[in-house]
Amino acid sequence: MTIPADTVSLFDYERRFHERVDPAIRAYIAGAAADGITLRENRAAFDRIRLMPRALVDMSAASAVSTLFGERLDYPIILAPTAYHKLVHPQGELETVRAASLTNCWMTVSTQASVSLEAIAEASTTKLWFQLYMQLHRNDTLTLIRRAEDAGYKAIVVTIDAPVNGIRNDEQRAGFRLPEGVSAVNLSGFEQRSAAPETVGSPVFKGLLQGAPCWDDIAWLCAQTSLPVLLKSIVNPADVVPALGAGVSGLIVSNHGGRTLDTLPATIDLLPAIVAEVSGRVPVLVDGGIRRGTDIVKAIALGATAVLVGQPVLHALAVGGLAGVAHMLTILQTELEAAMALLGAPRLADLKGTIFERGAMASRMQN
Amino acid sequence: MTIPADTVSLFDYERRFHERVDPAIRAYIAGAAADGITLRENRAAFDRIRLMPRALVDMSAASAVSTLFGERLDYPIILAPTAYHKLVHPQGELETVRAASLTNCWMTVSTQASVSLEAIAEASTTKLWFQLYMQLHRNDTLTLIRRAEDAGYKAIVVTIDAPVNGIRNDEQRAGFRLPEGVSAVNLSGFEQRSAAPETVGSPVFKGLLQGAPCWDDIAWLCAQTSLPVLLKSIVNPADVVPALGAGVSGLIVSNHGGRTLDTLPATIDLLPAIVAEVSGRVPVLVDGGIRRGTDIVKAIALGATAVLVGQPVLHALAVGGLAGVAHMLTILQTELEAAMALLGAPRLADLKGTIFERGAMASRMQN
Amino acid sequence: MTIPADTVSLFDYERRFHERVDPAIRAYIAGAAADGITLRENRAAFDRIRLMPRALVDMSAASAVSTLFGERLDYPIILAPTAYHKLVHPQGELETVRAASLTNCWMTVSTQASVSLEAIAEASTTKLWFQLYMQLHRNDTLTLIRRAEDAGYKAIVVTIDAPVNGIRNDEQRAGFRLPEGVSAVNLSGFEQRSAAPETVGSPVFKGLLQGAPCWDDIAWLCAQTSLPVLLKSIVNPADVVPALGAGVSGLIVSNHGGRTLDTLPATIDLLPAIVAEVSGRVPVLVDGGIRRGTDIVKAIALGATAVLVGQPVLHALAVGGLAGVAHMLTILQTELEAAMALLGAPRLADLKGTIFERGAMASRMQN
Amino acid sequence: MTIPADTVSLFDYERRFHERVDPAIRAYIAGAAADGITLRENRAAFDRIRLMPRALVDMSAASAVSTLFGERLDYPIILAPTAYHKLVHPQGELETVRAASLTNCWMTVSTQASVSLEAIAEASTTKLWFQLYMQLHRNDTLTLIRRAEDAGYKAIVVTIDAPVNGIRNDEQRAGFRLPEGVSAVNLSGFEQRSAAPETVGSPVFKGLLQGAPCWDDIAWLCAQTSLPVLLKSIVNPADVVPALGAGVSGLIVSNHGGRTLDTLPATIDLLPAIVAEVSGRVPVLVDGGIRRGTDIVKAIALGATAVLVGQPVLHALAVGGLAGVAHMLTILQTELEAAMALLGAPRLADLKGTIFERGAMASRMQN
């Protein structure tokens, strides 16, 4: 598993991932919902945004450090929850967490990890968050929370945007099935939702939504743990008030990487209105299509506290294992610092105002 | 006639249709007017619209059911009128109507069906509408209406946007002719319009428009039957008032799938102004480019009562016969329910407000 | 020289022209200025415009006839001036004028015709206009006018947008030279402009502009003839007042088909402001990218009295001689009538208001 | 080293450059930062701008001459600073300066020239500017200034937008290293910045920014020389006031050709606001993507005093040496004059108002 010398950006990892990995696994990991419009829009929206630097700023004390939930965060880059790392590496999440630890990046471990959450915690020297899907029975949910608390996880990320699976045609066409030896080991023994056994018509409203969580469940969840609870995925600013009312400590703007409902807006286009609605009460994070240091800059400039990266972790894990993931994260860190240097922004807070607005330029001209 | 396992969306049926069907027949069925700008725009306009979900809504009583002309409609998905089903299946419309019946979808039978309207009605256990082209002689038109009434059809859909054929270059290039054994059997014996026999210049204004219907003819038609009469295709909001004045019971916003006049707007871009003009007095339906559950969601959100699907029926009929059409319709139903679940909209009426408006987001940010 | 049966649109003629004609001649005829941005924009601008039909209009007395300079014009389609028809057909402009006569289309004969203007007039049974480049010496210009008058030409079209040649890279790369036997026979013996013989630097400001016409020359020209003088190419609305002051009888909005200065706007985007400035005082015509009946509809709807077609004439002449040109013109006439029928516009004047304006729709919705 | 006859535009030189030059050298010279968005946007922004000519203007005294820093400038086209001309030609900058002299173009010599600045000055009969990177030690900077003054350079161009290198993935993938015999000879013996020797994490904030210049350094620089000092690259209008306060005599709007920070705006989109802010106090120049005479026209129309061309010089030098560069510059001069002729603008000052504004047209129509 050698990393070719010309692997110098996250897109290179993505390209090599597609060259090297089994088609069905690729379809599961990289496949979008329906026609991939949101998947592509996540990227296109970042690419459309233009940056506006300041010249000749003193950068001698520059730093990308920030604070989140009272802890020092070296870079505003956190590993997003992604399922089944064993699909691309025999050590699975153990390999990933070692790379995250090496580069001082926090990692969110998925409910659907292919390694026990305790084993991952043991292999880690960085901070871990636990991503939670609400289970059909509250007891099972509670079991997961307690295990995460006991293993030293620092926050709970509850994913709310997948009451049913998205229409993942790529995955369906490839006929993906979990291979032998890869499973959601942390959910072993928990009852899962299933559709009523009918032969005709859509199965969605016939059982698959059974036990899907509502706001009450989030309030219950927040009451069960002293850990900060983050809600993923917030899309609509109108959901901010109920979320804060339910007691969450942070929000993650996300469209599930374009993997649930196609034609959702790009997350970076959603971020500003949600940040405005939150108005500083809790941190707002964002994921979806982050591939460049300039993407991180744009997210921070538009009000995010940090970003999460998901797919690139699996690309790099498949291509280069620990070394790949650590390299990929270092690339992002380097690109972020280079962007800050070239923008004349010594601190993350200075990134505010680095977004170029055509309208603002035009009105300046008329004065 | 086996359906490959990787046929999981309407686009897959479309692709396989193009792989399997004779080029001249494909050109007739799928060919657009002129340069196909409206055909592609129908799709592009849906793809441009972004959706805005609500989180954690209680979906336990979710349902896509509605009422139309006093009848329960399980899903707001109706088969659009399309000609000559025998072009792609030996059983023609009989096969189609069995699939519609199996999935509880209403079907609109074309004037140009290749099977007698009575035989189709006999094979049906679902509700049927009859699509009518006004004939050169009112007696012939009346004959068609009486036959449809007698056979139990529930509505008349009168198509008004084809006083002459569109400029169908694809079809012309392929040299399409109706094959032996396929004809508009329901029009047998009726006189058709023809151009004056001149040798030079355009034939359009020299007879081909003879007997093309005007508003008086629609008023006459509505007076002849107690069935609801729907007008297809409404494009201009200014035509709503005369249509209601003539006595129609419903409107279908359509550009004939981009097959009559090229560079007409996409139907989904036309819908809102027409819905506003109608102001709830009659139901407004829409067709043109519907391929995804999210397309249906967008149409309903913008004021449609239901959508019609045309081309996908022929694609699926060609690829898989009864099973293909039933499968295709089930995909649409499933995608619609999944979209409602992921949007947090338990009823069709809740889809109002699920359209993302960039401007609205921006103004929210300024408060 | 057979015309394949699948040649059913102007684009088909264009495609076959490129298949059949010598590359250097193609580069001369079809080559754009510089990067072809204006050439493509001429088409793209038409394709962006959406049409808005009225339903069920009485078309029994429909007609595309109009009046121009007191003469009946069967269709608002006139042949634009194009040089050297002998490049693609041994009979040159004689063949073209026979096709124009057969289809009752008026034809503008180029100063650079490869056949004498008198011979063309003799072969014609339709109305002819004469296109004029102002010559270095007024006597030569006057000679051309008198010859055109004597031969029965009905108007003078003076081209003003080519004081120097455009940067025609396609033509330069192909190394085009006029072949033996093809020349501007009507200019035989007239002195032409030439650059000063220097070895370094641009030749443009060193003689090539010598004798380029100014407004005084146009006023002089209008005073020399009782024929209507049309100015081609008007681009800037600010040039309307001086043009009318100089005594011209008509204006042709044109960017020389994208062959002079690249990145000029599309002519259809220029038309409305010029029509507004002219305010009905003289007819305004337009050329540039007309390939469809719907293009003609859009030009008329935006205020043009008629359109001119240039390139398609040469395409059809190369592919099918007289039959090709007559067929091509009949296609345009047929497409125009079909578009009028499908728009519910029985007269050219009814085309006003058939342009779909998104903004207008939106404001209607708010009422 | 023959120049093919079909090399008739700057794009032809670019194409041949890519055909003929070693891939790693191409990647160094032509490679963009990151994803090349700014590189492409520089071009796309020029292509989006539409021009608006005046007809029949008297061009008999037309000229592209202007005055800059008290000197006559034949054409507003100056060679931008580019590094290491020996990469593509054995004579390096000596060959380039001979071509610039032959065509009377001013040339900016790079700090990273591969030939001594004195030798270049000796080979020159045109005016030279010296481009300066502030060195780690002020003494070294001062040495460079004095050498430039002594050699007769007419201005200092201080580049401020590269405190660290951009993320040049193309160059990294190609594994570019300076070949034997090519080096920054003018910097010989000067200490360069280097990163702290750590093994993990980004190197950017660990030493690479050491000694990066601030506004004080620019003020110091301006005080050291009586030559005009130009600042390159200005992007943000907010930097105009500090720049003028520091004493600079001119500004160059630039994004380093898309080679430092990706997703910066196109320079032509930045120019108007900066020109407005400067308000005539000092000349404003612009570079980035200039390939056509119409690009120069647009820059001048939007307020630039002159443009700089960089990449095309290296393309032409690689393809045709002295003859190539002289030819390329003559093409630009010719295209500029042809554009002025076709726009009816006899002087550079007349180019104001030749930009087509859709909005202006629309409002004219409403009067």
UniProtKB/TrEMBL annotation, chains A, B, C, D:
Keywords attached to this entry:
Flavoprotein, FMN, Oxidoreductase
Flavoprotein is among the record's keywords: yes
Enzyme class name: oxidoreductase
What does the similarity note say? Answer: Belongs to the FMN-dependent alpha-hydroxy acid dehydrogenase family.
The positions making up the signal sequence are none
**Which PANTHER family does the UniProt record give?**
2-HYDROXYACID OXIDASE 1 (PTHR10578:SF107), S -2-HYDROXY-ACID OXIDASE-RELATED (PTHR10578)
Q: What is the lineage of its organism?
A: Bacteria, Pseudomonadati, Pseudomonadota, Alphaproteobacteria, Hyphomicrobiales
Specify the domain of life of the species encoding this protein: Bacteria
PROSITE patterns from the UniProt entry: FMN_HYDROXY_ACID_DH_2
InterPro entries referenced in this protein's UniProt entry, alphabetically: Aldolase_TIM, Alpha-hydoxy_acid_DH_FMN, FMN-dep_DH, FMN_HAD
> Which SUPFAM superfamilies does the record associate with it?
FMN-linked oxidoreductases
Q: What is this protein called?
A: Alpha-hydroxy acid oxidase
A Pfam family hit: FMN_dh
Q: Which cofactor does it need?
A: FMN
For this UniProt entry, the molecular function terms from Gene Ontology, in alphabetical order, are:
oxidoreductase activity
Q: What is its EC number?
A: 1.-.-.-
